[in-house]
Amino acid sequence: MTKKTSRVRSAAAGAPAPEPRADGTAGAKSGAATGARRAFLRIASLAAAFSLFALYMAWYEAHETQIRRSDEMPFAEAHADNGVQPGRTPASAPAVFASDLIRRGEYLARAGDCIACHTADKARPFAGGLPITTPFGTIYTPNITPDPETGIGQWTESDFLRAMHEGVGKAGEHLYPAFPYAEYTKVTSADVLAIRAYLNTLTPIHYTPPRNEI
After folding, report:
1. For residue range 160-209, what is the model confidence (pLDDT) as tens digits?
2. Distances (CA, A) of 82 to 100, 102, 196
3. Cα 41 from Cα 17, distance rounded (Å)
């Protein structure tokens, strides 16, 4: 062996070993594992949410009350065609029907906000006396409590229907324009009588509103 050859081999032996080439295989495997874990966690979360929902529905079905608020009671339940509702005996039907009709009427009276126009003093609800200013004078709202002398206690159902649908009072007086009966012409007669039934349960208040200033 020559001295030149020996020096070349020594230099090759002392050179650092070449680093392995990074081809991205390890990183790809790590990313795939992370994606799989995330997918598993999403599926597990959805399964847990569904299980909780199913448990809630089972609990709700087991504890749901049969008594609903009067605001949510459909009129179909409050007014059976024959006056007898399922599960109730004919003997108790009239009282139950009246109770349901009153609750329906209360709901409608609240929806129409009758108390707003027919109450001037909170100590006398529905007793009227609220002044309504118009270009031709001041009109005072009437007493619609069941007081027989100053309210509508002596009104018949026909009187009440005519007032609501035609704007004519018991004595034949025109209630328009203070009473916007035109807004109530599409209220069914059954619903009007439900409101009447509710008003009949109010405390009669003996109060005569001021005379109109026209």
Report:
1. 999 999 999 999 988 877 788 888 899 999 999 999 999 999 999 999 99
2. 14, 17, 20
3. 44
Q: pTM, whole model, 2 decimals? A: 0.56
Distance separating alpha carbons of residues 124 and 146, to the nearest angstrom? 13
Q: What does the alpha-carbon distance between residue 99 and residue 96 come to, in Å, rounded to a whole number? A: 5
Residue 48 DSSP one-character state: H
Residue 99 near residue 93, CB atoms below 8 Å: no
Instruction: Give the domain ranges of the chain.
Output: 114-199
Spatial CB neighbours of 149, under 8 Å, sequence gap ≥ 6: 206
Sign of the torsion angle spanned by Cα atoms 63, 108, 141, 160: negative
With a cut of 80, say whether residue 159 has pLDDT above it: yes
Degrees, nearest 5: CA angle 32-37-43: 125
- pLDDT averaged over the chain? 76
